[in-house]
Design a protein that fits this description.
single chain, MetI-like fold, 2 strands, cell membrane, Amino acid ABC transporter permease, MetI-like
Length: 223
């Protein structure tokens, strides 16, 4: 507790960065995952093949490798020199891009399974009253699919909170990066890792409770 009392500002700063990166990543990963899922369900062989290749490559290679590839491959992009919550986007955006691309490969399969779980009879009924395929997907299929996959999306958020720890290797001041600063300053690593573990655990418990609450409200609204 003495270490936390003396260096709590480092842990709080790192936690703030971890939460921000996780939120942005899950949001972007969900949107991109929706696109990849629709491509995966497409009858067009080229689009379907691209989606399969994307998912295979992103799920089949380590996240840390993807992080370094994106960081060095996109170093020509003039990222905005803006700070949000004390996080420099110029350094953080390459990490967000890599994490979002990786997250989308998992989210896409979750969304695809959610879409396929919706009774096909509802799509046929919607088209029978004159709705287009796009309208059917947007107004009939997707709302039901999202309800079905909500626990899995919440789980992806929880996973992403932990996976953001890899951005420390690019010098992003997340929880583990600041943990390293405290370890160097105190020469006492074990308590620092216990503190970080507890913080990650608390974050995931909060997210899990939030998802459970939202899911219960959705079920009540259905009644």
């Amino acid at each position: 507790m003495e270490i936390f009392a003396n260096y709590y500002q480092y842990f709080l700063r790192g936690t703030r960065t971890t939460i921000l990166i996780s939120l942005i990543t899950v949001f972007c990963g969900f949107l991109l995952g929706c696109v990849i899922a629709l491509l995966r369900l497409s009858k067009n062989r080229i689009l379907n093949g691209f989606a399969k290749l994307y998912i295979t490559v992103l799920r089949g290679t380590p996240l840390l490798v993807q992080l370094y590839i994106v960081y060095y491959q996109l170093d020509f992009i003039p990222y905005p020199k803006v700070n949000i919550w004390g996080v420099a986007l110029e350094r953080a955006l390459p990490c967000v891009i890599a994490l979002s691309l990786n997250s989308a490969s998992y989210v896409a399969e979750v969304i695809r399974s959610g879409i396929q779980a919706v009774d096909i009879g509802q799509s046929e009924a919607a088209r029978s009253i004159g709705m287009t395929n796009g309208q059917t997907m947007l107004h009939i299929v997707m709302p039901q699919a999202i309800k079905n996959i909500l626990p899995a999306i919440g789980n992806e958020f929880m996973v992403m909170i932990k996976e953001t720890s890899v951005i420390q290797y690019l010098g992003i001041s997340d929880l583990m990066y600041n943990n390293g600063i405290v370890v160097t300053a105190t020469y006492n690593p074990l308590p620092c890792y216990y503190i970080s573990a507890v913080i990650y655990l608390i974050l995931n418990i909060v997210v899990g409770k939030g998802v459970d609450t939202f899911e219960r409200r959705l079920k009540r609204s259905e009644r």
